[in-house]
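Usage

Read records sequentially. Each one opens with the input sequence:
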Amino acid sequence: MANYDRPGVIGHIGATLGKHGINIANMSLARNKPGDRALSLVEVDEAPNEDVLSELVRFEAIISIHPIWLGS
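and closes with the structure output:
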């Protein structure tokens, strides 16, 4: 997901996924400088449905979410 580097983003992701019973297997974050745009990669044990994705992106610091499938 693309997001702004703001407090609460990681908490929102974890709380939202946890509320829907989706376990985070791995999470990586990257930014150029504090407060700027950032990139968050979240590996989960099961794919979130459209309702979960919509709930995630409603947070004001999340710009967009692009689910990808890396499995076989």
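Summary fields computed downstream for this record:
- The longest strand covers residues 24-31.
- The CA atoms of residues 13 and 56 lie 7 Å apart.
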